[in-house]
Amino acid sequence: NAGVMQNPRHLVRRRGQEARLRCSPMKGHSHVYWYRQLPEEGLKFMVYLQKENIIDESGMPKERFSAEFPKEGPSILRIQQVVRGDSAAYFCASSPPGTGFLYEQYFGPGTRLTVT
Amino acid sequence: AQSVAQPEDQVNVAEGNPLTVKCTYSVSGNPYLFWYVQYPNRGLQFLLKYITGDNLVKGSYGFEAEFNKSQTSFHLKKPSALVSDSALYFCAVRDGTGGYNKLIFGAGTRLAVHP
User: Which of B19, B30, B33, B38 could pair with B88 as two cysteines, CB 3.0-4.6 Å apart?
Assistant: First the structure.
């Protein structure tokens, strides 16, 4: 049973380019969370999605960042016109359907974004 | 607002000795608390959680945590540390009342176990 998969594992972008980060949840999971970890810091919540719905995006920056979780395929975190401050590790986590707060989240290995 | 604090940046322990990694929390309502471990260049691995019930929670890899409501603490413990336990440990609390686990993480505590 494969865990949460994220790709790419490492991504280098120049300032002004777009970054697309992909997350495939564990089999049977329909809830996806995205978190960002800046160097030497804890993880910060960004967005929570269910299939085809954004439920909570209170942690997403208002501009340049967007997320989706289509009916088919992985969840995508998109960062437009990247800046150096976007350099971080981005983690995706998934949990089963149902009463979500009863279940722990399973984390992927992360995508390390470097903006040059 | 919900928050967690991990007062120690680093904890050093000799192999075979007991270890404690501290966490305190501040929440309105009942706390849902979690511990995760992160190895270098890896994602977080779930260790244990407290939702309700027994104050002593047993988790993976021999870890346990003690929920103390009066002290608002949820310290992670292990009776006998292993070198392989060396990693970054995060305490987290559930934020909000929705039917999902939006987590607020502490800054992390680096555990170093010396042979």
Answer: B38
The predicted model gives A10-14 an average pLDDT of 97
Residue B7 banded pLDDT, cuts 50, 70, 90: very high
CA distances from B59 to A3, A56, A92, A116 (A): 19, 29, 22, 41
Cβ-Cβ contacts under 8 Å, B45 against chain A: 107
B42 touches chain A (CB under 8 A): yes
- Cβ within 8 Å, pair B98-A4: no
Measure CA A67 to chain center.
8
Question: Least CB-CB distance to B43: which of A58, A91, A103?
Answer: A91
> Do residue B102 and residue A33 have CB atoms under 8 angstroms apart?
yes
Q: What Å distances lie between residue A73 and A33, A59, B43, B51, CA to CA?
A: 15, 23, 21, 32
A33: nearest Cα among B49, B50, B14, B103: B103
Residue type, B44: L
Would you state the pLDDT for residue A77?
Answer: 98
B17 or B31, which is more confident = B17
Contact B104 A45 (CB under 8 A): yes
Dump strand ranges (E) for A1-116.
5-7, 10-13, 19-24, 31-37, 43-50, 53-56, 65-68, 75-79, 88-95, 106-107, 111-115
